[in-house]
Fold:
Amino acid sequence: MTPEQQYVQDKAAKSGSSFYYAFLFLPPPRRAAITAFYTFCREVDDVVDETSDAGVAATKLAWWRGEVANAFAGRPSHPVMKALMPHTGPFSIEARHLQAVIDGCQIDLEQTRFLDFPGLARYCHLVAGIVGEVASSIFGRSSEATIQYAHKLGLAMQLTNIIRDVGDDARRGRIYLPVSELQRFDVKASELLLRTAPYGYSDRFSALMRFQAERAHQTYDAAMALLPEVDRQPQKPGLMMANIYRSLLREIEADGFQVLHQRTSLTPVRKLWIALRTHWQGR
Structure:
């Protein structure tokens, strides 16, 4: 294993992400490709989440834009890009895909509110839909319809992330729940930003979150309906991730949407069990 391959492997394993459990079931070439791509996404996302100075974060994102351009010109310098570039040809990964992910992180850096759901959906397209498209290519697809499935599933999973992370995002001064929907349910941004119980928790907040969860469930159902039968077998890793994320969503619902002061998660054993069950059942 090369140093750059070890780098992406270590970073993916240490992340504790649900994605990692799905990667385990892939054959080595596809596992290497998705691990490198996932680590790229993680590196870029960390620029915004772990850099307190917005100016420094902007400079880092600009560096990544240049690194992607240089890598596709044959001059990668970062271990992630060195690990990823051998897989770009075989799995149809293009510079525009990586630049779109950076565009999404740029939105995170510059915008802390979304006025309505169409605006939020455009953001989700960049940080999750494009990721789903690339992942579906790495997993293996023979139908163009699978791209639509991948984008819809990416949206469902990102909506789940948003529900889970309401408190964590508020700590950073961000609210991803659309302003128009806060107004619809009479939930004030200041209530979310307080975060700690009992502040922020109310019947109004519960109604808002039930609305968010129902939309996420509908999006999962829509994604599953779009997956062509011909690609169901190769897309099993995506189905594993969907089942893990949907189980997390149901856990949050069962806990009464206690997301302002804590971050709900599934244990590694439970994630692995869900992945195994999906592998066996094929759905």
